[in-house]
Amino acid sequence: MSIHRSAKKVFSKVAWHAYNTHRKGFFYRSQLSKTAALFNAPRETILSFQRERLKQLIRHAVRTTPYYRDLFKDFGLKLSDLLREINADSTDISKILPLEKQAVRKQLKNLCSELFPTYQRIENATGGSTGTPLQFYQDRTYWNQRNFSVYYFDRWAGWDFGEPQLIIWGALSDVNGDYWKQNLNRFWRNQHWLNGFHLSDSAMHITFKKMQRWQPKTILAYPSSLYQFAKFISDNNLTPKWKLKGIISSAEMLHLHYRSLAETVFDTKIYNRYGGREVGLIAMECAEGRMHINCRDIYLEVDSEDPYTKPGDLLVTQLNNYTMPFIRYRIGDIGRLSDEMCPCGNQLPILGELLGRSTATFKTKDGTLIHGGYFTQQFYNIVGVNQFQLIQETFEKCVLKLVVNEQWTAETSNHIVQKIQDVLGAEVSVKIEFVDEIPLPKSGKREFTISKVT
Fold it and tell me: Model pTM?
């Protein structure tokens, strides 16, 4: 390691210490240690902690927010009865009506706790990948606790304070703002940012050359942006000289071909991270490939008859946001739980399967759910297609938008239509529309499959 890189790493570590001390208090290191101790504890210790936090949150929400106070009154729920049901043998809060996105929009003020004045609320919003961005409020305690958990899980991928990190990101709230402030933050954090919204060949080439000198230890990226960067490196026969400890992917579905190419090009493992702006980090992949649920901050349910065998909508309860409680929030993703113990040794419960956005998961007439990844896999090795997007309009009709090149053939068209009908039904019509471009939505997250049925 060069003297310059060593000095920058030391400076960044000191800056991180100053930042955490300012935000979280002088004894933040002891809180970090307690966070790690809980995450590394036996499963029953973890679940016991989670149950107590869940009781505290529900008690707070019913007593201090108009929305939950009215909800309990309207449905004849008794707080004391519900709290008794959250015990060592059962954690059942299914009597509480799930919180839908439209309810958050309509009841924004009523969802806010009366104990928190306006000046203590931190406004935030989703990127709008499922439509209109969703506005909500958080507080400083939420952010502090969220960061402790992120620090813990990101270390699974080799991240640590002060280590150089390449970030390929594109959320508008993260890349817009004061230019000088962004550069200052990235400097003291020892980060280099590549805008995932605008991955031009020139920008990727400049970043690659800088990384050859800068030697990042980890990458944090949108899966689709990571894939594009890896493909650029591969297509141009470039060879990274830096040795990564790991890659953290987040904010989108990590498709198999994304993982395969990126892990090959960068010669390291991807650790998939699942979360949302509304609730923070939900789960993170370990070295054994299992997604461990963040039980310190989250209580996760699956809206299904059998959450361990039949996938359903994920319902998320955020245990730290007392300014605006999210209880049984339907986040818009589909998944399944697992009751296995992970061979990695960590005893956090496991999210057995994550199927992605509910709007990206197709549904047949008989109720079968088809993972959007099935459709994207059909395009992995098709050289005639530059871009694609499959839209399920109804149970009987799909529209396939394609940007093709000179290698496209009628045989390819028949092959793709057949693969779609194999899972949706032979009676389903597939209308192909050839277009010049499939623009990105405002969120910047690529939508390869969209279901208007689910």
Answer: 0.83
